[in-house]
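S., here's the first fold you wanted:
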Amino acid sequence: MAHSNSLLLFALYYSSLLLTAAQSTGSTQTGDLPPYSSGSLRGTEDLLGADGNPTNPADTAVVDNPQYVPGQTESASQGLYLDFNLVEQPQPIRGSRGGTDPGHRNSVYDQQNSDLFASPATDSGDVPNSKWPMGLSHNRLGIKNAGWARQQNTEVLPAATEMAGVDMRLEPHAYRELHWHTASEWSLILKGSVRVASMNEDGQTFVDDLQEGDVWFFPPGVPHSLQAGDEGTEFLLVFDQGDFSEDGTFLVSEMFLRNPKAVISKNFRSDESAFDNLPTDQLYIFPGTAFPSDISEQNVTGPAGALPKTAAYSFHWSQQQPLTVPGGSVKILDPQTFPIASGFSAALVTLEPGAMRELHWHLTSDEWDFYLQGNARLTAFSAPQSSRTFDFQGGDVGYVQVAESHYVENVGTDNVIFLEVLQAPRYADISVAQWLGLTPRQVVKDTLNVTDDFIDKLPKYEQFIVPGPENSTAMNFSSYAAPPGEQVGPGGLKRKIKREFVA
């Protein structure tokens, strides 16, 4: 017993010596430093505490000759757009607010997000992030160079609780494997062409050829396949579940792999050998052979026949002419013209340089946006007194929660094209200008303390888009007021707009 105690005491003493040696060398273990290293991992005690004499007084945080862009020295309350692409090292300054940035940073992000980097004074409080660049999403690559897919959901944009998006590319003749999912799928083709094929729960079949600008929709659980045409394709998918993931779809290859062969053989009344060459892993996106140009060769029907036209899973939106107004154009697709997509309403908007999708909000739905091209900005106002301004480029996803007022302004030199998607039975919004134009004059004056001239120019119809100059520092837009003659009467512009939107 005494011998054991002696050994224990010796072990404890030896361990303390090792620990002391390790601490003196700045290491927690002995012999764990590379033999070719120099210096130490930790400093010594004499570095603790105050030191009134910096060892390197040449280091400075002063930014000499900071670069400014047009509008940056104007009052921060004006909230002018600041084009930080004009300088190499933008500074977070607006008027008398902010200061220079001498530090280590990613200047490209600062240039692309000037309204976050140097926020307008009107921004206030906290608003959930409303932007996600698809370029920051993980890209899942298909096999044999057949394509790829990347997504946005609540994992990367937590505020987007009602909708998620996927950007998918298929090389010529490639497939998105036969699959189904628990969410509804609404898709806009961005490039190229696609042949879609499906069958509903009644055994009715559907096949169609779609091109850039066309839309398809599949309800939850309805199986379908997608195959690219001769030029390949890229398309956008929008789902009515904010936490939707492309990795969670039901794939036909996985279904065969995850059931006993005896069960598969019995189900299909086949010999087990029929399944000897099944894929050993999911296909997801994979190469294929060109489909026949005559679509009737793939129009397979059973006793239930084909899906009736009124319940078609596709809409040839590319052939719909938009409503054109000063500053751009708009066209709408909702269940009034695409009945099968019962919960999806969308608008495709083009804004000319300087133009703006007017201030508005949506009554019952969040808004999911995808920017196809151009440079834009948006301010989301959230009750009671919070707002934040975000900047967008082509490939970005935007998200605005229900009832939050917002606009979309083209701040670049090219057209902005973006898609708005709502979870609503029809596309609708409240135009701020129209609301004030149809509110009793006295109420508007007493509330906002504005002039009669301002009230006289308020429209009594929804403008959708308001034009403006390309000059980002302009502050007087009186010359862009809507002609008074367009604001009046039965059969006027408002009725014309409603008629053309559902044409």
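And the second, which I think is the more interesting of the pair:
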Amino acid sequence: MRSTVFTVLPLVALVSTAPAPLIARSPPNIPSTPTAQAQLADLRVAAQGSQTGYSRDLFPHWITQSGTCNTRETVLKRDGTGVVTDSACTSTSGSWFSPYDGATWSAASDVDIDHVVPLSNAWKSGAASWTTARRQTFANDLTNPQLIAVTDNVNQAKGDQGPETWKPVSIPGPGTEPERVRKKLILDQSETSYYCTYAKMWIKVKSVYTLTVTSAEKSALTSMLNSC
């Protein structure tokens, strides 16, 4: 009789390490809607001042915050997911979700740190009379919602515009739905969901630094808060 020999091979469990889920992070100290409405009501309305004398160099930025980490690298670590840095605090890997346009990036070089209230806008609404030290504080503010990691070319398109002429494109945050479904969500959703957060950040910063708003700016912010 022929016998059959079965060889039993040990089972090897295949373990894969899933990447950390992408998280849409927000800058600190974004006010509630009622607080933002009250702060907006208290802001002084005035025409924009002159651009004369303005230079970004008058707002020293990306100063050292801790160790080898400057302001830019600190915000990249704060707003990113799974961020790895080298000994110079340069972000070598990670993921960043840009709430201005819904894009996700895996290279820090594709990400800008936006000054929510642009430096030029601040200059024309009160900062021209500040000391250099106060302008430096404004340009590197990690306490208030003034700095946020976003897609570089979107930040460049915003430039120094206020909310009366520029608003973030609003699409769903990061998720796990298939791309087809995600695109449908983007097309179906109204373009106002991030307006609320953006307006509250803008108002908070202008309130903290006692900056003025134009009548058109205030009208736009009021409308944006109505989407909250």
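Why I say that: The chain has a mean pLDDT of 86. The first strand starts at residue 64 and ends at 66.

Talk tomorrow,
H.
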